[in-house]
Amino acid sequence: MDRKYSKFILDFFKYGVLLLFLVIVMFPFFWMLVTSLKGSQAEIYAFPVQYLPQKPSLVNYISMLWKGNFGRYMSNSLLVSTVAATFASMIGIGAGYILSRFKFRLKSPLLLFYLITQMIPTFIMLPSLYQMLSKHHMLNNIWVMALLYTNMMIPFSVVTLRGFFDGISSTLEEAAWIDGCSYGAALRKIIIPVMKPGIAATFIFAFINSWNELFMAIMFIDKDKYKTIPVGLNALILKYDIKWGEMAAGTVMALIPTILLFSVAQKYMIEGLTAGSVKG
């Protein structure tokens, strides 16, 4: 009886702590959703605080979608983030494979270069980048932003995927070579199927970082039709006021693509790294 009682107390404490942690983590999202459903600034600033809207309203969502230009911001962010994550992942696969499987003189310095590059804050490069882009009339260009984000995410993608390649036995490739596969065919048919969890994680990280990036976008884009979501939401911060309702509604809508991305890629995230070696 004492053992069962002790186990009950331990489980109660353990799940209680987890529940408390979940409440703390989820409360900002709850508050953001609630704020987006409040129809007026007076209700948002009400004292005492109203945790639930008296009359839930979609006026903030309507304002962002129809009166504002949020649809354009969303499409710009989707384009830039998808292009950057795709090309960064593709380059990461090739470079990571070479760094993992081949030996050459500059291998260690090159890997060190990628590691050091990740430690450099992005805003340090902004003045020189702005001068270069302005000189060549490349400001307010959505494809230039995609290129910059791709370049920003390459070091992380290379280092991360190189680590995944190191965790895959080279015997898989050797067996493919015996069957007549070239390096490229072995990579495409044998290694990449095993690498799906790593590729998915790299793509998601690159996508989210490009999706949320603000410093470059706010420096290099000032025309409304080229703005991404972070720049559009930042414009809601006025000189003497902040449009909290519209900002909350825009943030809720901005979360939808990332949630969908996680739900689609979830099956790849939970697969074992060697699952592909026994297929076919």
Automatic annotation (TrEMBL):
Q: Which residues form a coiled coil?
A: none
Which BP terms from GO are recorded?
Answer: transmembrane transport
Give the UniProt subcellular location, in the record's own words.
Cell membrane
- Record's Pfam families? BPD_transp_1 (PF00528)
Span of the secretion signal? none
The cross-references to CDD domains, in alphabetical order and at most eight, read: TM_PBP2
Its record classes its membrane topology as: Multi-pass membrane protein
Q: Which residues cross the membrane?
A: 12-34, 78-99, 111-130, 142-165, 198-221, 247-265
- Every copy of the ABC transmembrane type-1 domain together lies at 74-265
InterPro entries named among the record's database cross-references: BP-dep_ABC_trans_perm, MetI-like, MetI-like_sf
Q: Which UniProt keywords apply?
A: Cell membrane, Membrane, Sugar transport, Transmembrane, Transmembrane helix, Transport
Tell me which PANTHER family the record gives.
MALTOSE TRANSPORT SYSTEM PERMEASE-RELATED, MALTOSE_MALTODEXTRIN TRANSPORT SYSTEM PERMEASE PROTEIN MALG
User: What name does UniProt use for this protein?
Assistant: ABC transmembrane type-1 domain-containing protein
- Please report the organism this UniProt entry assigns to the protein: [Clostridium] citroniae WAL-19142
